[in-house]
Amino acid sequence: MADLAYIRVSSVGQSLEVQRDKMVAAGVEPKNLFEEKRSGLDTGRPELKACLRALRRGDTLIITRIDRLARSATDLLNIVKGLEKDGVALRVLDQQIDTSTPAGRAMLQMLAVFAEFETAIRSERQMDGIAKAKATGTKFGRKVKATPERAVEIVAMRADGKTVPEIMRATGLSKASVYRALGLVAAG
User: Fold this and answer.
1) How far apart are CA 81 and CA 88, in angstroms?
2) What is the pTM of this model?
3) pLDDT tens digits for range 88-145
4) Which residues share a beta bridge with 33?
5) Which of 1, 68, 76, 147 is most buried when burial is the number of CB atoms within 10 A of its CB?
6) Domain at 3-120: CATH code
């Protein structure tokens, strides 16, 4: 029987150190740590898949919080059902849950519902913030390279007989940007 740990942060800029320290303090051997920097919404988390494949009957999967493991309550419960079927327990350090007990299983199911609710609320707040920013004139996405003035220059170059590749070299713009500029001026 072994303890295997899965730790995850959502972005490259975040550190796994806090979770790693908790696992070592909980007695997990460093060779049994599976760690990655990927969004919880990413279904293709290779380290999670490797961790789940490495677990054997009688082992325990340890995580720091339930949101580190699953992207939704349904996803969490599916993972837990798979673990139970394989004879593997789940231990959540921060919420002090251990699915080897009936109380631990009940608590995990309740926390999964709350975690999914919190994620939905966070998403709503993010969308509200984006809508507010758009309403106040904030522009999203990359800055337009072919400004209206530049588009007029591009049209003039084309009218003078320059080819699209020549215009691309002269302006430093991509083919798509040149054609977009030609279309904007023609449409306007």
Assistant:
1) 10
2) 0.60
3) 999 999 988 898 888 888 887 787 778 778 778 888 999 999 989 889 988 888 777 7
4) 5
5) 76
6) 3.40.50.1390
